[in-house]
Design goal:
It is globular, with a radius of gyration of 22 Å. With 396 residues, it is α/β, with parallel strands linked by helices. The mean pLDDT is 97. It is built from 14 helices and 16 strands. The longest helix is centred in the last third of the chain and has 19 residues.
């Protein structure tokens, strides 16, 4: 259904473009039969958790794909907390504010202080030069975030970390299946953390993992993920309950088997968005970097667009296109960090600008070519009639 007048937009009383909600991050399901068969195996064996055979197989597969040792966890936030604790991090940890809040919460949770770093406006990832300027005598680590399914500047961050003898932890929550300089993303840094949340390209319903090339760190992380147990009756360190369960591992294994298909679908969707959004004034599409998994479609709504980002967002939601304002308003503008660091925004100009411009559009296996075409036509129509739409919004 093509809109021909602004009055036909759903926000102003017209019929919504879609009769279903189209989300960013609708889960990829993969093979239902394989998932159900694997869950049935776990039920038949009455082995549901505590490093069961499916969890160990999942770890082995991840390890092979990342060319690093793998410790699975119940989620990526727990994985970050364990990684920070296993590395013995304290004091200050440099981290981008343009990321999901869990990255920063994990730093605060282990008793360290997040030091917010600005980003490269072209890649949207942490700026190594700026990170280097933030190092103090209290700095223990840098956290680089692989955003939108492509890598941050690992080489630049590694140079800064080595120069100042800092740990380098890489948050790869969105980056499974990605590579950097031809190598798997999980083989870099002191540790990389992955998310297998339902919205990620590989999902385990809910899950996470730590990958590392350091066997001592891997052993520490494994102990910490299981209360510190080194044997049935022997606790050798402080720990928590961070274990992955067998149902999650079953889903994760099915997802891994479909990874190449998921990436191919994401890439096809991204190419169609690039084609269909071309020529819309004031809107640009972020081009994925080499080695991307194409899992996010990210646009910037520039000042020259006739409609603002937040207004476009509002109108799209009314049409059941549930675009997301990632990562608005930035971690530095959320509590408790807004109160702890009230003036930090002044040294985060690129973060502030992008947080006000970025919009993520639906993609993945649940989004069809026709869906994308209609979404792009809708965005083009709103942009073309932005002045009238904006006036109507303000009058309401």
């Amino acid at each position: 259904m093509q809109k021909t007048t602004v009055a036909e937009l759903a926000f102003f009383g017209g019929q919504a473009l879609f009769n279903r909600l189209i989300h960013v991050g609708t889960p990829n399901i993969g093979s239902r039969d394989e998932v159900l068969a694997r869950v049935a195996q776990a039920l038949d064996a009455r082995r549901l958790t505590n490093f069961g055979p499916q969890t160990l197989e999942f770890e082995r597969r991840v390890s092979e794909l990342q060319n690093a040792m793998c410790v699975s966890t119940c989620n990526a936030t727990t994985a970050l907390q364990i990684a920070f604790r296993a590395l013995g991090l304290s004091g200050e940890i440099i981290v981008p504010a343009f990321t999901f809040i869990a990255t920063v919460h994990a730093i605060e949770w282990v008793g360290a202080t997040p030091v917010f770093c600005d980003i490269d406006p072209c890649t949207h990832t942490i700026d190594p030069a700026e990170a280097g300027r933030l190092v103090t005598a209290r700095t223990s680590a840098i956290v680089g975030v692989h955003l939108w399914g492509h890598a941050c500047d690992i080489a630049g961050l590694s140079t800064v970390a080595k120069r100042h003898k800092l740990s380098l932890v890489l948050d790869g929550a969105q980056a499974f299946g990605c590579s950097y300089d031809g190598q798997p993303i999980g083989s870099y840094g002191d540790a990389t953390v992955f998310s297998f949340h339902a919205t990620k390209i590989v999902n385990a319903f809910e899950g996470g993992a730590i990958t590392t090339s350091n066997p001592q760190l891997a052993e520490k992380a494994r102990l910490m993920s299981n209360f510190g147990f080194s044997d049935y009756d022997e606790v050798s360190s402080v720990g928590t309950n961070g274990k992955m369960n067998e149902a999650s591992a079953a889903m994760g294994l099915s997802s891994l088997g479909c990874l190449s298909d998921f990436i191919a679908i994401n890439r096809r969707n991204h190419e169609q968005y690039a084609h269909d959004l071309a020529g819309i004034s004031g809107i640009s599409l972020l081009c994925p970097r080499e080695g991307s998994n194409y899992h996010y479609v990210v646009i910037e709504v520039h000042d020259e667009c006739a409609i603002g980002r937040d207004e476009l967002y509002q109108l799209l939601w009314s049409e059941n296109v549930l675009a997301r304002r990632y990562y608005y308003p930035g971690c530095h503008a959320m509590e408790p960090y807004r109160s702890l660091f009230p003036d930090v925004r002044h040294r985060l100009p690129h973060t502030e600008r992008l947080a006000a411009r970025v919009l993520c559009l639906p993609t993945g296996t649940s989004v069809s070519a026709d869906d994308i075409q209609q979404i792009c036509r809708l965005i083009g129509f709103i942009a073309e009639h932005g002045a009238e739409a904006r006036a109507r919004l303000r009058n309401r």
